[in-house]
TrEMBL record:
This is No apical meristem-associated C-terminal domain-containing protein. InterPro entries: NAM-associated_C. Residues 48-194 form the No apical meristem-associated C-terminal domain. Pfam families: NAM-associated (PF14303). Residues 89-123 are annotated as: Disordered.
Amino acid sequence: MTRWKIVQKATLKFAAIYNKLKDNPASVSAPEDWLTTAHQFYFNQEGRQFAFERPWLLLKTVSKWQSLSGKAKKLVPPLTNLQGSVLLEDAPPNPNTTVSNSPDKAKWERPAGVHAAKQKAAKDNYKKKRLNLLESSTKEATQQLFEAKRSNNIQESLVENEQEKVCLNILMQDPNKCPDATSRMALVACKKQIHDWSWNHSSQGEC
């Protein structure tokens, strides 16, 4: 069987399942729920994950393809437990289908929910903004302290103490807790700058 035939057969089967879910939606379900449930039913019936979602997304609006998927829908067995988008986690696979023993195909993997994904993105964004604000505030405070020291020798001791606190605050930050690689690189660079500055001015007793 050619690769196109494999893709065609799988996408037609998946389209038939999805269309049945769309035509008989649960009262509180949304298109995202239909897609997740369609993946589950496909896995239950075929014994493997549906791996051609991108081709299906491209083809599902083509009129000729819609006609073919409409015919394929008649070949799909009735889908049960649709109300409330209940997933059949333990439903047996098609007995005529060979189930792969590979870890990525032997078990159904439910995609992360839309709300959970949004919450995670919002949390990561908050952490990133907080780190950026800390970095910006630290740079601004450090610059102000350096300028204060140069302009007022009377407050030199106080400036040095405050500057040391700022440096220690930066050095205590854990790069592994940064939300992304960019923030982590910025924090590491800032720490290196402090270490270099401290090394060059250690004879003066500064951080």
